[in-house]
Amino acid sequence: MKEHQIITIGRELGSGGREIAIKLSEELKIPFYDKEILDNAAQKSGYSKEIFERHDEKPTSSFLYALAMGGSAYGHFYQRPLLLDLYLAQFETIRRLAGEGPGIFIGRCADYVLNDQEHILNVFVHADMQDRVKRTMNKHGIGEKQAEDMCVRSDKDRASYYNYYSDHQWGDGRHYDLCINTSKIDPERAVKLIIECL
Length: 198
What we know:
Largest sheet: 5 strands, parallel
Helix content: 40-55%
Strand content: 5-15%
Radius of gyration: 17 Å
Number of strands: 5
Shape: globular
Distance between the termini: 6 Å
């Protein structure tokens, strides 16, 4: 592995992307950043961690939401919208953490934010809906319909967030170095594949 290796992992809810990141972190003995990005951004920005969590990878293109965040009916903003501040704080945090050494970054447009890094591997983890639903049911102790609704809503939120802040399409395989379907490849094998790619 390169001395300053960066790995980004985009993922569908219930695909096991976070589990893969944790196992990869343990195997490579390098840190992984998920909610830690929010913690770091909150400390540096002055906004509370709760605000970051409430808006974490949520859609941003709604006109009404823009109004609520500081705009006028004519589209002129009296101050920079809160969501842009939150994104920029996360952007700066991801850049800073990547500059400190190797790491694994989960979601939050990290592949796009760090696209100028020399040693970077961008991974996207997905799975068939029935497997995602099953994993989500087990993780959250909820019923099948609720789990499916969570997966569908999460896909829409993450795609909206990613597509808004980058010039790529969320989940489009052309923008990743490796796409893994955990319906076919279990997380343990996925970790081995990523390490082989490194």
